[in-house]
Amino acid sequence: MSVDRHPFPPDPQHAPLLRALMALDGSTTRVCEAIAQAPMTVQLLSQQQTEQVPQAVREQLGGSRFLHRVTSLHAHGRVLMDNLSYTRLDAVPDWFLAKLDEGVAPIGHLLQRLFVQREQLASNAEIEAALWQHVGQPDLRASRCYRIVTAQGPLMLIFETFRSGMVVDA
């Protein structure tokens, strides 16, 4: 599947949109759908269960087994965002893991069934590299890192970067 993937435009006219996206504390998937005026297509770039994760992931989530997943959300042939997620396997409901394994549902659609809280985190070079190796085009200016926490404890660590597809006229 060929889609255009470019960094978020550096134009000053797009700075307010980027500030809003970086401050977003809700479903990024829903915002992407509103901007694109279309459902998001999930492109699953990589997904594997693993015990080998960056130390920062282990520190933020606990646990010993994780689902490492890299996806792109796109519509109309343009990438709106690239995402890296680590999900703690011993903390995730079975139905959630089954949907992730299918590889077609955006995480935002799955999280709406759980009571979750997002906590902003600092990323680090090891986590950033785990995304860039799949999607290229590093853009820390338009990237953020956070963890998803449920009432039972930490569930996911997500590092995502917004792309030019977020800007309708890009």
UniProtKB/TrEMBL annotation:
Record keywords: Pyruvate
Pfam families in alphabetical order: Rv2949c-like
SUPFAM superfamilies with a match to the protein in the record: Chorismate lyase-like (SSF64288)
Domain of life: Bacteria
Name listed for the protein in its UniProt record: Chorismate pyruvate-lyase family protein
Source organism: Piscinibacter gummiphilus
